TrEMBL record:
The keyword Membrane does not apply. InterPro entries: ADH-like_C, ADH_N_2, ER, GroES-like_sf, MDR_fam, NAD(P)-bd_dom_sf. Residues 16-333 form the Enoyl reductase (ER) domain. It comes from Futiania mangrovi. The lineage of its organism: Bacteria, Pseudomonadati, Pseudomonadota, Alphaproteobacteria, Futianiales. Keywords: Oxidoreductase. Pfam families: ADH_N_2, ADH_zinc_N. One of its GO terms (molecular function) is oxidoreductase activity, acting on the CH-CH group of donors, NAD or NADP as acceptor. This is NADP-dependent oxidoreductase. It comes from the Bacteria. CDD domains: PGDH.
Length: 335
């Protein structure tokens, strides 16, 4: 009757290491009045976790030193004093990197394991899917005949952005690292083209693939890739800044940010650039859940998970796969 838990011990400088975490067996938590306990089966590993560990102003409070590492996760209610959540219910929520979590139901969604496996509910049918949906539909507003470029194109968010863009009639170009990921987005997901940024000159390829320039850019990575796409934006182009993963572990602030050419493009092309966090759209969440579920059931949205074994103890190394591109699809830790 113990609970394996991963707590944040110290704040990382650069890439986090095992030394930044304390992983130990703790007594099994007991749900109080109005609470329930979940057996966690799938922990979502998200690029945002690096930001959650850092001090400084952000869109959420950092994880406090000594706290359970924050994580989205899916599992089954095993004991409950809550009227709406009963033993056996499958749920998804911010349960943290631990085997068992107690919750009062805040931000917890019920999920249907018959519709899709646990790992998909923290992936394409969960937060990354909602992110792709809102960033594409509410910020980029894809239009037929226009070109949409998405970076980290084979990943949890990017793979859905491109597919939603195609459903809305746009021409979609994905940027990803390596031939296999590029083949996946074109041949399996139906993107019009892919650029392997590890082997090709992104800007040159955009000149060839999008001679009328880029109308919409879904920014997931920033850095050199972000600059290359910004240089090729069309007049009155739209940019949804979803993430800047290339900078999350960067320790030299001088290496982060758009270059002079990108900044000039903002002005001369009169770009509309909007950063967003998925929960800005909390009031419309039902809409995203409905559309993603329907398109998924109809076979119009393909989703891929990269499920890693090893339990809570594997968390520190598994997380870093996101920043080295070792993951291929939504990265999930199986407990
Ligand atoms: N705003 C929001 O509310 C929100 C919500 C969820 C996610 N996000 C953001 O969305 C982005 C994608 O997240 P995800 O969960 O879908 O992750 P993911 O794409 O499944 O995995 C991360 C991928 O990023 C790429 N990458 C890592 N380091 C890179 C670098 N230095 N340069 C270029 N590419 C790099 C790698 O793909 P390659 O092998 O192709 O390089 C890696 O596989 C992240 O920036 C994340 O922070 C934002």
């Amino acid at each position: 009757m113990t609970n394996r838990v991963c707590r944040l011990k110290s704040r990382p400088f650069g890439m986090s290491t095992r030394e930044n975490f304390e992983i130990a067996d703790e007594p099994m938590p007991t749900p109080g009045p109005g609470e329930f306990r979940v057996k966690v089966h799938a922990v979502s590993l998200d690029p945002a976790m690096r930001g959650w560990m850092a001090e400084g102003r952000s869109y959420v409070q950092p994880v406090a030193l000594g706290d359970v590492m924050r994580a989205y996760a899916a599992g089954i209610v095993e004991e409950s004093n809550h009227e709406a959540f009963r033993p056996g219910d499958a749920v998804m929520g911010l349960f943290g990197v631990q085997e068992h979590a107690v919750s009062d139901g805040t931000f917890v969604h019920k999920i249907d394991p018959a519709q899709a496996p646990m790992e998909r509910w923290v992936g394409g049918l969960g937060m990354p899917g909602w992110t792709a949906y809102f960033g594409t539909m509410e910020i980029l507003h894809p239009e037929a005949g226009q070109t949409l470029v998405v970076s980290a194109a084979s990943g949890a968010v990017g793979s859905l952005v491109g597919q939603i863009g195609k459903l809305r009639g746009a021409t979609v170009i994905g940027i990803a690292g390596g031939a296999e990921k590029c083949r996946y987005v074109t041949e399996e997901l139906g993107f019009d083209a892919a650029i392997d940024y590890k082997a090709e000159d992104v800007e040159k390829r955009l000149v060839e693939l999008a001679p009328d320039r880029v109308h919409m850019y879904f920014e997931n990575v920033g850095g050199k890739i972000g600059n290359a796409v910004m240089h090729r934006m069309a007049t009155f182009g739209r940019v949804a800044v979803c993430g800047l993963i290339s900078s999350y572990n960067e320790t030299d602030p001088a290496k982060v940010g758009y270059d002079a050419g990108a900044q000039r493009s903002i002005l001369v092309n009169r770009l509309k650039i909007q950063g967003f966090i998925v929960f800005d759209f909390a009031k419309q969440m039902r809409e995203a859940i409905g559309h993603l579920g329907k398109w998924h059931a109809e076979g119009k949205l393909k989703m891929r998970e990269d499920v890693r074994e090893g339990g809570v103890d594997a968390f520190p190394e598994a997380l870093n796969m996101l920043y080295t591109g070792e993951n291929f699809g939504k990265l999930v830790l199986k407990l």
